[in-house]
Amino acid sequence: MSDPRPANAPDVLAAAGHPAPDRLSPDQDDFYAALMAAHAGLDAAQSHALNARLVLMMANRIGDLAALRDILAAARSAGDKP
Q1: How is the chain classified by DSSP, letter by letter?
Q2: Which domain does 27 fall in, by range?
Q3: In-domain check, residue 57
Q4: Which of 12, 20, 38, 43 could form an S-S bond across to 78 if both were Cys, CB 3.0 to 4.6 Å?
Q5: Are 59 and 51 in contact (CB under 8 A)?
């Protein structure tokens, strides 16, 4: 499958210096395509609401507060970089 991500899509974990291994390969592109499909046809408010539900559902699945705090910090710091 070809990479559905834009050519300039950031590697958020690498940008944040996150040490977690890539556990999604080789399915990462399929996940990204499914994520984009889930957002297809939604307006901005609906898309934000979907993201919020996804975050809460994934946090519940992970279930480890320390890991979740690390993920939040990594995501926040990745967003601060150009």
Answers
A1: ----S-TT---HHHHTT------STTSHHHHHHHHHHHHTT--HHHHHHHHHHHHHHHHHHH--HHHHHHHHHHHHHHHT--
A2: 23-79
A3: yes
A4: 12
A5: no
pLDDT band at 66 (very low <50, low <70, confident <90, very high): very high
Contact assessment for residue 72 and residue 4, using Cβ atoms and an 8 Å cutoff = no
3 located within any domain? no
Q: Which of 10, 14, 16 is nearest to 70 (CA)?
A: 16
Compute the residue count for the chain. Answer: 82
Q: Is the pTM of this model over 0.70?
A: no
